[in-house]
Structures are given as structure tokens and as C-alpha cells.
């Protein structure tokens, strides 16, 4: 029996929830596909036996991927924010998402090939912004010039 967490993020996919969940599990630590449920009968955008729901975790956060059809495309109104500790970690996640059919955006944001948005956010950026004052202003200004976040450039801006 599949255990469903009290609070679970549900992400709508056209038909690729299982593929997306397996991709995420291959990239991020503490991530896995825990169940694949098939439709017991035909439904508006699929047939009996099609993958309907995929239970998975991303960095320990429980999620459900629902293959609901093309009615509701993804927007930047929802994103996963992944905190990183090193440039190598930032590069690894960014390159995995963008390099597998995704696309770059601004300020540490990128989009995977299914249209789900990701913020690959170095902790150094979060800490610089939390510092407030001139330090935060300098780090923020540096971030606004970037697509993928450059740890060294943020650190340099933070320190002035």
C-alpha cells in the first residue's frame, strides 16, 4: 500500500509524470520514485492501464505527479527551490536540468523539459540577501546580471 504524506505537492503533467519523476530521482539526493499507479478505467485524457499518478520525493519532499493531460501547463507561479553549497553542486543541477531539454532563465531559474520551474539557489546568495543593507544590495545587483548563479561573483559582491 502506498503511504501518502499529510501534505503532498501535486504537479500536473500532460503524460510524462513517471519520466519526470525518474529524472528528478536520478539528479537530486534523497529523491526517489515510490509508487506508480495506473488508471483503473478510461478517463478524459487517457485509457485504463495508463500511468495516472506517480508518487516520488525531491530532496525529501513528497510529491505526486498527475498525468492529467495538456489542460494546465506549468508556469513560474510554482517552482522547486534547491539550495546548493558549492559551485560544483550548482553546476551539476543546473546542467542536468538545462542540458536535458530544459532552458535557462534569469537569476538562478531554469525550466526542465516538462516545463517545471527550478530555482538553483546557492546558500551564499540567500545568506547575502539575509544580511540586509549594502551587502544585500550588492549581492542582489550581481544576481540580476546572471542566469546560473556564480558563487564567487556573489561572494565578491557581498564582501564589496
State the distance separating the first and last CA atoms. 55 Å
What oligomeric arrangement do these chains adopt?
single chain
Counting helices, strands and paired strands, the structural category is alpha/beta
Low-confidence stretches: none
Question: Judging from the principal axes of the Cα atoms, what is the shape?
Answer: elongated
Put simply, the count of helices is 5
Q: Numbering strands along the chain, what is their spatial order in the largest sheet? A: 1-4-3-2
Major sheet size, sense and barrel closure: 4 strands, mixed
**Series of H and E elements:** EHEEEEHEEEHHH
Return the average pLDDT rounded to an integer: 95
Strand content: 25-35%
Helix content: 25-40%
Radius of gyration: 18 Å
Number of strands: 8
Note down, in words, how this protein is organized.
- This protein has helices spanning 17-27, 87-98, 123-131, 133-143, 151-159; strands at 9-13, 32-38, 51-58, 61-67, 79-84, 103-104, 109-111, 117-122.
- The longest helix has 12 residues, at 87-98.
- The chain has 5 helices and 8 strands.
- The protein is elongated and about 60 Å long.
- A 4-stranded mixed beta sheet has the order 1-4-3-2, covered by helices on one side. It has a 4-stranded mixed beta sheet with strand order 5-8-7-6.
- Helix 3 (123-131) packs across helix 4 (133-143) and helix 4 (133-143) packs antiparallel against helix 5.
- It is an alpha/beta fold.
- The model has no long low-confidence stretch (mean pLDDT 95).
